Amino acid sequence: MSQSTTHRPEHDELQPVLAHLARTTRTHHLPGTPEYDAAVSPWNVAVVQRPVAVVAAESPRDVVAAVRLARRHRLAVAVQATGHGATSGLQGTLLVSTRALQDLHVDPATRVVRVGAGVRWDRVLDACAPHGLAPLAGSAPHVGVVGYTTGGGVGPLARTHGLASDRVRAFDVVTGDGELRRATATENPELFWALRGGKGLAGIVTAVELEVLPIAELYAGAVYFDGDDAPDVLRRWATWAERLPREATTSVALLRLPPLPSVPPPLAGRLTIAVRFAWTGSAARGAEVLAPVRAVAEPLVDTVTTMPYAALGAIHADPVDPMPVHEEHALLGALPRPAVEELLRLAGPGAACQQVVVELRQLGGALRLPGPVPSAYDARGAAYSLMAIGLGAPPVVEQVRRDAEELVAALGPWTVAGRLPNFAPRTGTAWLRATYSAPTLRRLARVSRTYDPGSVILGSADLRATQPHRAGASTLLRSLQALTSARR
Ligand SMILES: Cc1cc2nc3c(=O)[nH]c(=O)nc-3n(C[C@H](O)[C@H](O)[C@H](O)COP(=O)(O)OP(=O)(O)OC[C@H]3O[C@@H](n4cnc5c(N)ncnc54)[C@H](O)[C@@H]3O)c2cc1C
């Protein structure tokens, strides 16, 4: 992880900030209190978060106050709702927690949902279900709506219905200059562009309005096979997935799940392989399409069936409880047979693989289409997402890290530039350069300079550091001109 360039205030500098917080903000938590500990405890417990203080926003006004305070005292301000995408770069920052912003309104007539920035997908799924409506949630419904959507949002129906961020109609957002703004395709359009894919770089969202789809049921789930069948399953999956129509979204995961009570016995303490499948057409046609995968071997567990859309989380069955994880991620442009064999060599049966999950998500389909309104999401051309997740705690973490890096390096011939902004959350200039193209970084930096002139939003200093130093360049030019004229 690269070094963040954010200002790190000394202890004495912080005293006026804390005094100001104590005077003006009812809902703030300081280190040493149980409320602070609860607010900074992340889903990935391997990440240590130590912000100066937490402002537990109860309204957009509290967010405005926090940003203005941070600006006055030259502190960076970060935002989190659930801690699912926590990063360790919070030292010296003021953390705004949006957990209490829980407004949720479904308008079945317009098929638009408005949610506060603290709302998780599970509440939206439940609120939409009685109307037969479906929000484009991710694989884990306990993830926050805003964090997910600002990162693009590649969910279990992504190949059919595209990115969650392409369904955003409007954001209410507090920008780094301390103003509460509305961002839509026509109102502050550059901000709207940046907030869909640029994550929290452009401001702190207080509410989002999303289009939801008329889907009540799905033919979906996962087929789990024994690890010994992994080579056949993975080889079949790779050729089968290539020919799938857009009604299908699929991923495959090599799983080394620990023998814990929360893990179903057939999957615990051994290598298994899961093919996840979500089909938006008829169940009968879905079963026909899935048949070649089901026929590879005798499944250990087969959960693919007609399910209510609100049960979307069952497809991936992601873990809910906090845990220490190490994540490594890359995008692939293709998955030819040699790439499959490399994956099997390093993560298949017999490999000394340290990863709990090695997942390939097929992208493409609707994800390739440009959204209705351009956005900062840069990864539309990628064909697959590779994710390696291992235990992020001693004594194995270093081995897990090396092992994950080896896996990504082995697939290097098939990787393409860019990353999904939501995957492997990190900070710093190296992460930004690896995630976004140069034109997107340039445009994000321009938005940041416009709406956050004091570089208050966490990550904005790193964002600007990715840009050539214009003052430096002109100074260099002047020096060269002076040198040339001196020689004449
Ligand atoms: C188990 C699991 C499954 C996942 N599955 C998927 C998946 O299927 N598809 C996918 O795309 N991603 C997936 N993710 C990644 C997830 O979308 C990101 O980690 C996301 O950032 C989580 O948002 P959060 O609000 O829950 O987390 P938080 O830790 O609260 O926030 C993470 C980041 O989101 C941004 N953010 C949060 N709130 C705001 C705000 N109010 N304004 C501006 N920015 C904000 C900030 O950059 C913040 O640092 C998954 C993550 C986990 C842990």
From TrEMBL:
Q: Where is the FAD-binding PCMH-type domain?
A: 47-215
Give the record's keywords alphabetically: FAD, Flavoprotein, Oxidoreductase
Question: tRNA processing among the record's keywords?
Answer: no
Matches recorded under InterPro entries:
FAD-bd_PCMH, FAD-bd_PCMH-like_sf, FAD-bd_PCMH_sub1, FAD-bd_PCMH_sub2, FAD-linked_Oxidoreductase, Oxid_FAD_bind_N, Oxy_OxRdtase_FAD_BS
Q: Can you tell which superkingdom this protein's organism belongs to? A: Bacteria
Molecular function in Gene Ontology:
FAD binding; oxidoreductase activity
Span of the secretion signal? none
Q: Which cofactor does it need?
A: FAD
Q: Which family does it belong to?
A: Belongs to the oxygen-dependent FAD-linked oxidoreductase family.
The molecule here is called FAD/FMN-containing dehydrogenase
Q: Which organism is it from?
A: Nocardioides scoriae
User: What high-level taxonomic lineage is stated for the organism?
Assistant: Bacteria, Bacillati, Actinomycetota, Actinomycetes, Propionibacteriales
